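Continuing the series of single-chain predictions for the mutant panel. This is the parent chain; the variants come on the following pages.
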Amino acid sequence: MWEYSDKVLEHFYNPRNMGDIDDADGIGEVGSISCGDMLKLYIKVDENKIITDAKFKTFGCGSAIAAASALTEMIKGKPLEEAEKITNKHIAEYLDGLPREKMHCSVMGREALEAAIADYKGEKIEHVDEDEGKLVCKCFGIMEGKIRSVALENNLRTVEDITNYTKAGGACGTCIPEIEDILTDLWKDESKKKSAEPQPVKENRQLTNLQKINLIQETVEKEIRPQLIKDGGDIELIDIEGNLVKVAFRDQCAGCMSAQVTLKNFIEKKLKEFVSSDITVEEVVPD
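Parent structure:
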């Protein structure tokens, strides 16, 4: 049985902004009923390119409803330029996480937002090469390009991950060997770098203060900042006081509504994994 956060359940039982907008400035429709999930997103944009309203209609599971509801709340009142930077990870973080088996619902939300913004601009939607390559999963109509782009965006390494985020491989299973080949090709250079990366902490390991500081700095630079930068954000290591690590969010992370979720569920979790289970992280907010 999947475990859902209170926020997911709240947005499922009491979804925000359901319905349509008759005079919408942009409409994005992704998925299909035949595949089990579909989302139609409507947006209104004013003369200052601020999203003043957003509504949705969806066919799918509770996570699909919650993700769509959360997305509309995230983009209302937001400048179009900022809304364009929202990723599926931001949607999941806003909901305090989604079961990995349901992450495809957050991907669908991100794709619907892209499509709606493209429609507003009068552009043809192009999902960053997602329609390129050959058809891999015939059951759900998933192309090789989509598997590659979603895997890169979310650091996916297994077929199970790909299925959770795209549904590919989740029906008849005949495409699983092909998905494995795509992942092997995608991450073939990673094994060469693995020896240089920080390794997960071994419990009961004794570290000197200098060793701990160096390991914290190394983990921030190699494990944390690259992921934040990829999403348009960043952090700065401000101070280390024993097991307390103080950081400041920069760029898109500064003032982000999901910042505290990122602080605890990603940054602190990574430092506990690679440095010490006693580590806590605190945000330093500029005056």
